[in-house]
């Protein structure tokens, strides 16, 4: 996705006289090719999809100043600039100055059978009011689908609560977890340990999917199985295999570049395996110039200790995973 001289912003325009309610263009994008001057003159513009490589680089740079709150949308942009396996796109309320960034799946490339995990949206805002207005008055977020909304700021969760009645959905908080960041350079001294010859490093593949599904805290459904399959087929992962070639400890990445489903089989706990697999994946991420971050239940003490040994910084930022379900599906 290298820069081309054309201006290929996808403009989503709404009728200025209908006091903010979308026109019949709902869910319908019209790619225009036009000049920068024309784009700036478009005063009724409410949101735009950034799909020019140079602009995504500018956005990335601005978002780096707002870590950890902007980490999820930042991770999505990194993936968009690579192969974009989850067909994500990023939209802003205005450009080049913006107050809201939303990473969402491209609708035309998201079949209806896609799991609600894969349909996750992530949000970062500089002004809560601007976020509320954007998602209330435009179709930036498609409330008619079941999806997970991931926000690292309290307001994302609050806005969903306030819009549920008017947009006909229910929002259920699935988990609320604390965000940690592994500082660079990684402290790998804690991950140097002598592995017995019967245990070896590898990465996850599709033969492990049932095990992943059965052990994931929010797994156990067709949707989670489909999602985990998509994750390990699209992104790097790290695991330790026992002598029989079965994974005993592992970690993978979600579509926002966030560490997820870090797990050690009960019989193998207490040996520091989880920090080995996390360190291995973290090194890979560092090479790709990705931030290394994840989220953890506050009371997960063993995992916290393992992360502390890797020099993790536990931020004061919490991730809200909110499952949004349209009322018609209930
Ligand atoms: C790195 O980890 C080792 C082992 O846990 C610890 O002794 C050391 O102080 C850490 N170094 C830094 C710079 O945090
Ligand atoms: C996924 O895990 C759940 C819970 O263990 C199980 O009921 C379900 O059958 C699994 N699905 C598949 C296809 O393995
Ligand atoms: C998947 O991993 C297993 C080890 O658990 C290995 O034996 C197998 O060859 C791998 N399959 C593929 C397709 O890489």
From TrEMBL:
Record EC number: 2.3.1.-
Keyword terms of this UniProt record: Acyltransferase, Signal, Transferase
- Signal sequence span is 1-20
- What's a GO cellular component annotated to this UniProt protein? mitochondrion
Q: Where is the N-acetyltransferase domain?
A: 199-330
Q: Mind listing the GO molecular function terms for this protein?
A: glycine N-acyltransferase activity
Protein family per UniProt: Belongs to the glycine N-acyltransferase family.
> Which protein are we looking at?
Glycine N-acyltransferase-like protein
Organism the protein comes from: Eublepharis macularius
């Amino acid at each position: 996705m290298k820069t081309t001289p054309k201006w290929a912003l996808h403009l989503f325009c709404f009728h200025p006289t209908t006091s903010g309610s979308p026109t019949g263009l709902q869910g319908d994008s019209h790619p225009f090719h036009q000049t920068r001057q024309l784009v700036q003159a478009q005063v009724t513009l409410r949101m735009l999809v950034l799909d020019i490589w140079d602009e995504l680089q500018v956005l990335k740079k601005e978002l780096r100043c707002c870590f950890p709150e902007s980490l999820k949308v930042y991770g999505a942009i990194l993936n968009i600039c690579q192969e974009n396996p989850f067909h994500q796109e990023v939209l802003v309320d205005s450009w080049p100055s913006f107050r809201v960034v939303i990473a969402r799946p491209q609708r035309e490339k998201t079949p209806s059978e896609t799991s609600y995990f894969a349909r996750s949206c992530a949000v970062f805002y500089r002004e809560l009011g601007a976020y509320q207005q954007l998602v209330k008055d435009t179709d930036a977020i498609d409330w008619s689908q079941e999806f997970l909304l991931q926000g690292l700021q309290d307001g994302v969760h609050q806005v969903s609560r306030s819009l549920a009645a008017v947009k006909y959905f229910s929002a259920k908080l699935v988990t609320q977890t604390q965000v940690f960041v592994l500082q660079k350079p990684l402290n790998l001294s804690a991950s140097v340990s002598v592995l017995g010859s019967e245990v070896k490093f590898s990465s996850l593949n599709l033969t492990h999917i049932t095990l992943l599904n059965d052990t994931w805290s929010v797994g156990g459904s067709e949707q989670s199985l489909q999602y985990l399959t998509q994750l390990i087929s699209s992104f790097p992962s790290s695991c330790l295999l026992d002598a029989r070639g079965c994974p005993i400890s592992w970690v993978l990445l979600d579509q926002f570049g966030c560490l997820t489903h870090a797990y050690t089989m009960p019989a193998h706990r207490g040996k520091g395996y989880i920090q080995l697999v996390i360190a291995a994946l973290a090194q890979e991420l560092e090479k790709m110039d990705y931030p290394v971050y994840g989220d953890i239940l506050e009371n997960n003490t063993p995992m916290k200790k393992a992360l502390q040994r890797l020099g993790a910084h536990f931020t004061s930022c919490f991730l809200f995973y909110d499952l949004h379900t349209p009322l018609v599906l209930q």
